[in-house]
């Protein structure tokens, strides 16, 4: 049974708008992120943990003695788009669900892991390791929080991040972003779409001058000498772009006659498996490559787009960049940007086996480790994996409209984290 204390903490945390916003003095990612960090650190201090706030970039809470074991969570969330039927920061409860941005990514799982540790301590058990909860505030936008942490703080030798899927993830594909820059075509006023590279865009808008409209049946006159083409899609996490519907690539396909480069981009990125640009690659360890054309913006005489690629562990980011440059038009500048190297831990490693056993015991299953395209803080650790919170076969609303957490699932994940922490850090 979820305690009133836990439910109150979860609700309060979900009610904080921690989408990254412009920096304020002492708040590098905005006021909401700092408020979320203060709430969890204050809570854990009351629970007996020693806490440290690293200039509101991130913070941690620690208890125990011995080797350092990390539980790495993040408190920032992706932006909210139109279409929600519940207030995105209202933490509205409907039946057994709480609706809010961050409910499953990653505030809900963070509270579940925190609660699991508190239950073990309340039981009178003594940690045999130093347990450190690390709370980042810039996971969705660039990991500057982790750069700040790594610059001055001790890195846990081992740990997990409750920020992906159960049963346990021993392999994460490499992630590399690219900025694609093309000349703004004659007659095009603007092209805009998406919010982040790692979110499938659910809306896109192209505005052109009236001179182009007679040739474009999908455009609608605006009345100011321009016509507008708008498309809508379905947002999803870029780790699973096939679960969404990309409004940007749909728009480029409809507007392919506006400019040959629009047709090039539509053909290259209309398929999420990379087949349109010779990137349909896979390996036995991590599976197939995926990609997502996530954003577009107009800046003077150019249009810039952000491409998110999740590649197999046996590839390199340089391989991806080379193929893109070879296959796209020379008129499209390809610039490699943000990236994460792949992660792979043997399924036979004791960390993986212990976490997997805890999951299987609570869930009465015989599941095996899995691979994801998502990128978690586990990559920061010398030895780390992602562990929960999404259950196999359950719909995921991460990065989607009307994100929610099911309270029965919350209770199950807490039980799993409790058993795992007991075996890893209390014996």
From TrEMBL:
Keywords: Dipeptidase, Hydrolase, Metal-binding, Metalloprotease, Protease, Zinc. One of its GO terms (biological process) is L-arginine biosynthetic process. One of its GO terms (molecular function) is metallopeptidase activity. Its cofactor is Zn(2+). It comes from the Bacteria. InterPro entries: Bact_exopeptidase_dim_dom, M20A_pepV-rel, Peptidase_M20, Peptidase_M20A. Its EC number is 3.4.13.-. The keyword Zinc applies. Belongs to the peptidase M20A family. NCBIfam families: dipeptidaselike. This is Sapep family Mn(2+)-dependent dipeptidase.
């Amino acid at each position: 049974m979820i305690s009133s204390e836990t439910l109150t903490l979860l609700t309060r945390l979900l009610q904080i708008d921690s989408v990254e916003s412009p920096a304020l003095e002492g708040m590098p990612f905005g006021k909401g992120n700092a408020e979320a960090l203060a709430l969890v650190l204050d809570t854990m201090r009351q629970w007996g943990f020693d806490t440290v706030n690293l200039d509101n970039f991130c913070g941690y809470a620690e208890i125990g003695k011995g080797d350092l074991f990390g539980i790495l969570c993040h408190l920032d969330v992706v932006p909210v788009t139109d279409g929600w039927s519940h207030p995105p920061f209202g933490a509205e409860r409907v039946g057994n669900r709480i609706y809010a941005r961050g409910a499953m990514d990653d505030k809900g799982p963070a509270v579940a892991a925190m609660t699991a540790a508190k239950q073990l301590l309340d039981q009178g058990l003594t940690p045999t390791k130093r347990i450190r909860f690390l709370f980042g505030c810039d996971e969705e936008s660039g990991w500057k929080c982790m750069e700040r942490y790594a610059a001055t703080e001790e890195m846990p030798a081992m740990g997990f991040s409750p920020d992906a899927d159960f049963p346990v993830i021993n392999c994460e594909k490499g992630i590399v972003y690219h900025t694609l820059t093309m000349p703004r075509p004659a007659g095009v006023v603007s092209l805009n779409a998406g919010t982040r590279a790692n979110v499938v865009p659910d809306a896109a808008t192209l505005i052109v001058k009236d001179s182009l409209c007679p040739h474009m049946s999908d455009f609608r006159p605006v009345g100011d000498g321009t016509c507008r083409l708008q498309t809508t899609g379905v947002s999803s996490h870029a780790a699973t772009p096939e679960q969404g519907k990309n409004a940007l690539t749909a728009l480029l396909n409809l507007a392919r006659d506006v400019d040959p480069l629009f047709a090039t981009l539509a053909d290259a990125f209309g398929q999420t498996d990379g087949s349109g640009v010779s990137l349909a690659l896979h390996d036995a360890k991590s599976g197939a490559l995926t990609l997502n054309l996530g954003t577009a913006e107009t800046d003077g005489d150019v249009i810039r787009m952000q491409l998110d690629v999740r590649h197999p562990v046996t590839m390199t980011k340089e391989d991806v960049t080379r193929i893109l440059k070879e296959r796209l038009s020379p008129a499209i500048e390809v610039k490699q940007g943000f990236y994460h190297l792949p992660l792979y831990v043997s399924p036979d490693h004791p960390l993986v086996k212990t976490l997997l056993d805890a999951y299987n015991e609570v869930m009465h299953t015989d599941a095996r480790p899995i691979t994801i395209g998502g990128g978690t803080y586990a990559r920061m650790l010398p030895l780390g994996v992602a562990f929960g919170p999404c259950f196999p076969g359950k719909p995921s609303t991460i990065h989607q409209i009307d994100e929610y957490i099911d309270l029965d699932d919350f209770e199950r994940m807490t039980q799993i984290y409790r058993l795992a922490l007991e075996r890893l850090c209390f014996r």
